[in-house]
Every structure is written in C-alpha cells, then in structure tokens.
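Structure ticket #2291
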Amino acid sequence: MAQGNATSISIIQQSIQAEESKVRDRSKQEYGRLWEAYETACHILSKLAEQGGSNPDGNPLHGAERLSLTASLLQSSFLVEPLISSGHYLSSVAILRQHMEILARIIELRKGLVKSLKATPNVGLLPFRLSKNYGRLSEILHTSHGEYLSCFVEDQESEEVATFLPTYRDDWSRILFSVHIAHLITLAIEIQSLHRELYPKKDLVNITESLNSIVGILVDTGFWKTLETNIA
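Resolution: structure written out below.
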C-alpha cells in the first residue's frame, strides 16, 4: 500500500514538474525587459552582499536588527522568481506579502519608529507606492475570497474544472514579477542605507544608476506611471 502511494506521488510530481517547465519557458518569453530588470537587481544585491563582508566601524540605529532582517530577506528573495515563473502564483503571493512586512519593519527600525516588535509593521512607509499592493495581496490569501483562490486552479478549457497543474496566466505573471522586482530594489536601497551607517569611512559602490535603469523599465512596462528620482 505504501509503495503504491509513493508511486502515485511520484507521478503527480513528475506531471507538475513537466508543466512547471512549460510555464517557465512561456513566462520568460513574455517578461520582455522585466527579465533585464530582474537580472540587474540580482547583480546589485550581489555587489551589496560582497560590500558588506568587512568589519563595520559605525554604529547604526537598530543595526543588529536591520542586519538580521536584510540578510534573511536577501536569502529568501531568490525563492520568489522560480515560483512566479513556474506558475505557482498563490505561493508567491504569500511570500511577497511577507516580504512587504519585513521591508516595512526595516524602514521603521531605520527611522526609529518601532514602539513594539509585536505590532504589525506599517506598510504605508514603503516607497514607490508599494503599500497599495498589500491589501490586494491580503485579499488573495484570505480563504473567504474564493473568487481569487479559484482563479489559480481553473482549467484553461473549463472554469468548472480545477487542475493541480500549474498554468501560465498572463494577468498574474507579469504583475507579480514586477512587484517582486520593486521589492528587490527597495531591499537594495535599505541595504545601502545600512552600509552607509555601518561603514561611514568606506567608499561604497554606486548603485543609483543601475536602480534608476530598473525603475525606468518598470515605468516603460506600465507597472509605474512615473519615474521616481533620487531613489538611492
């Protein structure tokens, strides 16, 4: 009996993985310049991670907490793109929402606004009007909103049929990927801000031009209406 179950699970996994590969190919075809923006963001974060490898000579406000949060967020950030690109939109929504809260907490700590770590972070502090996405992401995750949950598992040929296989959905893929990229550049800005306080005597890498190029792509692709200036 146990062997039969294991075989069934293996077949399901193989089916899901096969569809993931198809969805991922389609996603990368449709991303266009968004993929360029994503790769640039990853390159910036890699440079910042390398920059933060030396011993600090500054004493930033809530430095230990900010360092821990930015490190953990950086670590988990690279889980998101494979989820979105492979069609696991609901799972990516859960992580994106969590990342918004962590970014908001980092900003609160930098500004000295945290009165209690038990309180929900104020996502209204997020830059680039990202807070407007928080409510929508919360609605999607709320189990009572069946209209959102069902759209992730509807069969492409019939709305009356649910499928366990990931399916490419243009309306979700590009917007979630754009939100993720916006989170990455927000994280980069916060890491650079922390580094300025940790290494006041160090000549830090200039990331402004690269960040502006990413924002320009988000504007050109319609995610943002206007270009934000002086972002780093």
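Closing remark: Confidence is low (pLDDT under 50) at residues 227-232.
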